[in-house]
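WARN no homologs supplied; continuing
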Amino acid sequence: MAIVAIAAMAISIALYAYNKFKRFRAPGDAMKQWYQTKSMISLGVFILAPGLLFTLPPFWGFVELTVGLVFSLLGLVYVIYGTKYYRKILPYAREESEAMRVSRGET
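OK structure emitted
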């Protein structure tokens, strides 16, 4: 289980950095918000993974369990709200992307 969590953390932090850099280079506001929500979801997974590691057995003590629960809840909140906002902003980002593609003369 630890290897899966470490792999999830590595992949999610790489996706977080990628989406943050893409956000700064995005041409429109909706596209920037779209990349921001994707980076928010990646950050949530990055926080959730060690939280799950701390809460799974074997338990080392009360402090580890408490820290694990806090991290798990915080990561879950980031993932849930990021997903909700992602679904909300996706149609606007598609419209903006299509409008930019048409204005550049692409087919």
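The chain has three helices and no strands.
OK
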